[in-house]
Design a protein that fits this description.
Elements lengths: L1 E2 L2 E3 L2 E3 L6 E6 L4 E7 L3 H19 L3 H17 L1 H12 L3 H18 L2 H4 L4 E6 L2 E9 L2 E5 L7 H12 L3 E5 L6 H12 L7 E3 L4 H9 L3 E7 L2 H13 L3 E5 L4 E5 L5 H13 L9 E6 L2 H16 L20 H16 L3 E4 L18 E4 L6 H4 L6 E4 L5 H10 L2 E2 L1 E5 L3 H10 L4 E4 L15 E2 L2 E2 L7 H6 L1 E9 L17
Parallel strand pairs: 1-5, 8-9, 8-11, 9-10, 11-12, 13-14, 13-19, 14-17, 16-17, 19-20
Antiparallel strand pairs: 2-3, 4-5, 6-7, 7-23, 12-22, 15-16, 18-21
């Protein structure tokens, strides 16, 4: 077991609090590291170092900042296998899934290479007699981020890459469950040419989080996690006068119309529902087949596919479909909800409760589950399970299916499977969900569009990555300039309109 570190001012730094959190190998259940939990004083020290480094970085021209991101992309490709292995070892993802985690973050960094264009302001000449108007996008200063365990590479990259390329410094509090990939990325960014102190990684729990939220020198906060914590962080950080974007939980529905290709839909549900053991905020956790015949045929196709899923550790090879969940607590919560679903009358069509993997009995593995005839008042529907559990809610009509998705309190992602363009277009136009897939199971936009949900899945008015990220991490300054010709005598005391 190793003692882990913060990443402060360009160096691995030992914690001073004397408090630690265990970092597990989810496949074996063994403790593999002790992670220091920062004090508020340690967090403040990181912020002060970042604050001192930021002005010179903000004064660096955007093209030079973008070149650091270019080099960073090269280094991530170089160390892809190392980062993915560290990620899998602490999270439990398969290696292909871990590489996907890194690559989706890398794509955001590639988008940030275009920051010089995105940071351009606007200009109007001769808005009045000898008067020009122009705007500038300027950095906020020191920005903060709090990232979740389920994407320990992608989510930090979605936050700190746009913030830093815009000229800010960044203080990141990663998940205490799997911090190593994040720290590796921070070291690579400095190898790419980022000056020391501009990216600080401070490990911690609520003590560090609250210190970040309350710190007067932190201008913005980004967060991804559960909805109750997202609401807490949004309210506390906003009350402290910060710019805030918080992304919470999800309950993503896939509508399967009677005309859909059911083999295609079943395959999509398998990947979207069980990939990464269901620990994705964009996982499809609810299938909504329209019509009894559609539902019966869909269940018939899902059962053999789910029963054939291979569950195992990342070390078992690339043909493993998904690995363990992240912790023993997560495993217990998932299985407790499964029991609740059975007790409340849902039909457990595929039962993974007794799943056990020889040689890994102490690991945090959960077998795949499929429920049918779930109703919207059951706990397995109302709560985000965040595990390998797919629920089927049958709808009699398209309008009923649409209403099920729209009435849910979450609005992160949704999908519809159909061959009918009119139905798809109607669904896209009417559904009150932030990201919609048409015959696409996990509609996560590419990095040059923005990512964000609606309703209780998001708090704040700007999304992640894409153009919104540049807006979030900068503020606009508008200048009205007049260079009068000749000599003007006397003062003017009235507020004149622009003639």
């Amino acid at each position: 077991m190793t003692e882990m570190h913060h990443f402060i001012n360009g160096a691995l730094t030992k914690g001073t609090s004397g408090r630690f959190s265990n970092v597990y190998n989810p496949a074996t259940g063994e403790v593999q590291g002790k992670l220091p939990l920062a004090t508020s004083e340690e967090l403040d020290q990181a912020v002060q170092i970042a604050k001192a480094a930021q002005p010179a970085w903000a004064a660096t021209n955007p093209q030079k900042r973008a070149r650091v991101m270019m080099k960073f992309v090269d280094l991530m490709h170089r160390d892809m296998d190392k980062i993915a292995e560290a990620l899998s070892r602490e999270h439990g993802k398969t290696i292909p899934d871990a590489k996907g985690d890194v690559i989706r973050g890398l794509e955001c960094v590639e988008f940030c290479i275009g920051a010089p264009h995105l940071l351009k302001g606007e200009y109007t000449d001769s808005a009045g007699p000898g008067i020009d108007l122009y705007s500038m996008r300027q950095p906020l200063g020191v920005c903060g981020g709090i990232t979740p365990f389920n994407f320990p590479a992608m989510m930090p990259l979605w936050m700190f890459a746009p913030a830093i390329v815009c000229g800010n410094a960044f203080v990141l509090k990663p998940s205490e469950r799997d911090p190593s990939a994040t720290i590796m990325l921070a070291a690579l960014l400095e190898e790419a040419g980022l000056p020391k102190g501009l990216l600080q990684v401070v490990n911690g729990d609520k003590v560090a989080v609250d210190a970040l939220l309350d710190h007067p020198d932190v201008a913005s906060i980004g967060f991804v996690g559960s909805t109750p914590i997202a609401e807490y962080i949004y309210q506390r950080a906003a009350a402290a006068g910060k710019r805030v974007q918080c992304f919470g939980g999800a309950k993503n529905h896939m509508i399967i119309m009677p005309d859909a290709d059911l083999d295609q839909a079943a395959d999509a549900l398998i990947g979207a529902g069980f990939g990464a053991a269901g620990e994705r905020c964009m996982a499809i956790s609810v299938a909504v087949p329209v019509g009894e015949e559609t539902a019966d045929k869909l269940i018939e196709k899902l059962i053999p596919r789910i029963e054939a899923l291979k569950v195992g550790p990342y070390t078992a090879g690339d043909d493993v479909d998904f690995g363990p969940v992240v912790s023993a607590d997560a495993k217990k919560r998932i299985l407790d909800l499964v029991e609740t679903g059975v007790a409340q009358g849902a039909e457990l069509v595929v039962d993974g409760r007794n799943f056990s993997l020889q040689g890994y009995e102490d690991g945090f593995f959960v077998g795949p589950h499929l429920f049918d005839r779930v109703t919207t008042d059951m706990d397995i529907y109302t709560q985000e399970i965040f595990g390998p559990v797919l629920s089927t809610v049958r709808a009699a009509t398209y309008e009923e299916a649409l209403k099920i998705a729209m009435d849910n309190e979450y609005g992160n992602g949704t999908a519809i499977y159909t061959r009918d363009g009119d139905t798809a277009r109607d669904y896209v136009a009417r559904v009150n969900v932030g990201m919609v897939g048409v015959n696409v199971p996990i509609p996560v936009p590419l990095a040059y569009h923005t990512f964000g949900g609606w309703k209780k899945s998001a708090f704040g008015d700007l999304n992640q990555h894409g153009p919104d990220s540049i807006k979030f991490y900068t503020r606009t300054k508008t200048v009205t300039a007049r260079w009068p010709s000749g000599i003007k005598e006397g003062g003017e005391f009235n507020f004149k309109s622009m003639d």
